[in-house]
Amino acid sequence: MQTAVKETTKYAVVAAVQLPSVSDIEFEASLAELRDLAKTLGFKVTRTFTQKRSAFDSAAYLGFGKREEIRCFVNEPEGADSDPGRVDVVFIDHEISPSQARNLEKEVGCEVMDRTMVILDIFHRNARSRAARAQVEIARLGYMAPRLREMAKLAGPQGRQRSGTGGRGAGESHTELDKRKIRDRIAELQQEIAAMDVERKTQRSRRQERQGLANVALVGYTNAGKSTLMRALTGSEVLVEDKLFATLDTTVRALRPESVPRVLISDTVGFIKNLPHGLVASFKSTLEEALDAALLLHVIDASDPGFERQLEVTDEVLDEIGAEAVPRIRVFNKIDQVGDVAAQVEREAMLHAKYPDCIVMSAHRNDDVAMLHQAIVAFFQQDLVEAELFLPWSAQKLRGEIFSSCEVLEERTDGEGAFLRVRGEREAVKCLSEQLSQTS
Question: Other CB atoms closer than 10 Å to residue 72's CB: what's the count?
Fold first, then answer.
């Protein structure tokens, strides 16, 4: 009989400094986000330490008194309750320097991870495709390079120097060697990504050349319900998980039920406040799905009191990758999570007043999903043309092509053939008309 192995719970605390320029609402939202990131990594956050300062402590980020408070908490003996006093890691809600991290670790007595390291670790665990893994590795290497010196200090004198060949000179330090290896590896990965980009662009071109094809990209804050919405619109079994960055790789599926033109929907990596610029650059190829789209569905969590912050973050990142000109529909999702019915009606009225062209919905309500489906189809049909085609009985082989490339609005027949009133893209209708004229 096998004994089940019980997983050991990992415990953590969160620590942050609130600067004068940061409002209380923004500060609390950022802390809540970091706690969610910790949850994604599998940690249970037992306490949050905060302090207000005019600037970060240059030596160890937090002030001396707050560092001492954390040290006492970390080193408490295990209590009688279910949560032991021990702490495995301290999560810092900013990116801190290597020396600040090293000094803070020495003082509090446990591992310290800043916000950037946390996000990198999550990306590393969740990347699936070859491109995503390469991008994650570049970001991790770029983050580690300036921290090698501090790591060498922790390793001691024996790990810092490599003797020169033949006894001449002091030789090259391990730190210098490691930095050179990192530069070489980054260059190698960048070449691989460049080759993959060419391949991806070729695949996109082939997709876009298909007759009657339109592209929609879901963009928005991570955990705003994009994957759930993708599943509802396409009927696909995409991953839906209550974790930040549950998936990093772009998923592409067809809109269901299918429309004319046929619409492809892609889900992109979620945005997050204070996403390190290095990560934005590393995941540019994933976000570029938004650049290739004819329409963006900007998904916002309507139940989040700080939803305006979500809007700002997403708009900033879209501007950064050059997608500010792509048409978009604002989709306020999760309205069903806004209190009772009266509160939902009030929130919906407020959103429509402030954003007149938005859609307020829940991805779990079929009527709402149908409403969004109709809005997507209407967007792509606004430039379609209507025409009447005559299909002789002798040319019935073209019937399948007509129905696949156009929407047939009406059909009537006589002894000579069928009259079809159709709606489709101008070029598709013109091509069909020319083919039919040759058969008569």
Answer: 12
pLDDT in tens, 107-145: 999 999 999 889 888 877 777 778 778 878 888 888 887
Residue 296 · residue 323 · CB < 8 Å: yes
Angle, helices 174-209/148-155, rounded to nearest 10 degrees: 140
For every residue of 144-207, DSSP letters joined together read HGGGHHHHHHHH-GGGTB-PPGGG-SS--BHHHHHHHHHHHHHHHHHHHHHHHHHHHHHHHHHH
Q: Which residues contact 126 (CB under 8 A, 6 or more apart)?
A: 245, 246, 247, 248
Helices (H) and strands (E) in the chain, counts: 16, 13
CB 84 within 8 A of CB 74: no
CB 86 within 8 A of CB 11: yes
Give the pLDDT mean for 228-245.
Answer: 72
Strands 417-424 and 407-413: antiparallel
Q: What span, in angstroms and rounded, lies between the C-alpha atoms of 280 and 248? A: 12
Using CB atoms within 10 Å of the CB of residue 198, give its burial: 0 to 12 exposed, 13 to 18 middle, 19+ buried: exposed
What is residue 384's predicted lDDT score, i.e. its pLDDT?
86
Give me the pLDDT at residue 5, please.
46
Report pLDDT for 169.
43
3-state helix, strand, coil in the chain (%, to 5): 50, 20, 30
Exposure letters 7-23 (e unless 16+ CB within 10 A, then b): eeeebbbbbbbbeeeee
The pLDDT of residue 148: 73
Kindly give the residue spans of alpha helices, DSSP state H, lying in 326-381. 341-354, 366-381
Positions of E strands within 283-431: 295-301, 328-333, 359-360, 385-392, 407-413, 417-424
CA angle 139, 144, 150 (to 5 degrees): 165
Query: What's the whole-model pTM score?
Result: 0.70
pLDDT digits (tens, 9 = 90+) for 71-108: 999 987 654 344 555 799 999 999 999 899 999 999 99
- pLDDT band of 300, cuts 50, 70, 90: very high
Q: How far is CA 65 from the centre of its chain?
A: 37
Instruction: Report pLDDT for 407.
Output: 86
Kind plus residue range of the DSSP H or E element containing 252: strand 251-254
* Number of Cβ atoms within 10 Å of the Cβ of 306: 18
The CB-side HSE value for 343 (13 A sphere, CA atoms) comes to 10
Indicate the pLDDT class of residue 156, thresholds 50, 70 and 90. Answer: low
How many alpha carbons lie under 13 Å from residue 116 in its C-beta half-sphere? 17
